[in-house]
Amino acid sequence: NQKVLQSLDATAFRIAKHIERLGYPTILIPAGPPTDLHEPGKGMWGWISQRYVAVEAGLGEIGLNTSAMTPQYGPRVYFGSVITTLDLEPDPKMEKKICLGETCNLCVEACPTGALSVAQGPDGPVGVIDKRKCQPNAQSWGLMTALRHIRDMVVEPEQSRQLDLLFSEKTWHIWQSFITHVGIDGMCGVCLDICPVGKHPRPHSLKEKALAVHKDKAAFKERYCR
Questions:
Q1: Could you tell me if 14 and 63 are in contact, meaning their C-beta atoms sit under 8 angstroms apart?
Q2: Which pTM does this prediction carry?
Q3: I need a labelling partner for 98 at 20 to 30 A (CA). Which of 39, 54, 216, 226 fits?
Q4: Residue 184: which pLDDT band, with cuts at 50, 70 and 90?
Q5: Per-residue confidence at 68, pLDDT binned at 50, 70, 90?
Q6: Residue 152: CB partners within 8 Å, gap ≥ 6?
Q7: Percentage of the chain with pLDDT > 90?
Q8: In whole angstroms, what is the distance from residue 49 CA to residue 86 CA?
């Protein structure tokens, strides 16, 4: 997914440069990092919410998995943004419902950490995500993993053990994640994978099998949690 984000940023950069050549100030909003770091425990936040911008631009709606989804690709889509003073005619917001909601509920049921739930919003059921539960799977080699690893080295009283931690396989994984972004985000994606919305929805016969696999909490903990 990092290659997709890089491609989005490159495309947005070309668009921004073209608009600026027309004489209108323009700002590129990255599709991925860099981001702002909120207070400890609140995680990383983008400069703007790309998913809500996409909804306002008429590209789709927010599903129960709390991701933006489109009729063509469901939630398996990324967005980039350009802010400009150029006067553009906006598209209307999409009125058609895309997410199947609680009649489907696969994303909520399949989440390996139980991070998704449903609450009643002003216009009907809405998805709610507990980022503290989601983060260990989605960012298995992200910032918190690195900070905990550094903490373990700092508080270790034995120098030999400190060196073991420093030159451990975990340090190697963290370093690779920092330079490639692999493992920093987008590692889980169960709620995106299992969603039946899109041009090529998952055949019904596979839904139960997929749900059974995704609900194997022990298998997901072994694969993702660090």
A1: no
A2: 0.74
A3: 216
A4: low
A5: very high
A6: 165
A7: 38
A8: 21
pLDDT above 50 for 225: no
Sequential DSSP letters for the chain:
-HHHHHHHHHHHHHHHHHHHHTT--EEEE-SSSS-EE-STTS-EE-SS-HHHHHHHTTS-EE-TTSSEEBTTTBT-----EEEESS--PPPPPP-S--S-GGGT-HHHHH-TT--EEEEEETTEEEEEE-HHHHHHHHTTTSHHHHHHHHHHHHH---HHHHHHHHTSHHHHHHHHHHHH-BTTB-S--HHHHS---SSSPPPHHHHHHHHHHHT-HHHHHHHH--
40 versus 88: the higher-pLDDT residue is: 88
Residue partners of 137: CB distance under 8 A and separation at least 6: 112, 113, 115, 187, 188, 190, 220, 224, 225
CA 36 to chain CA mean position, Å: 15
Please give the average per-residue pLDDT across 200-209, as a whole number: 55
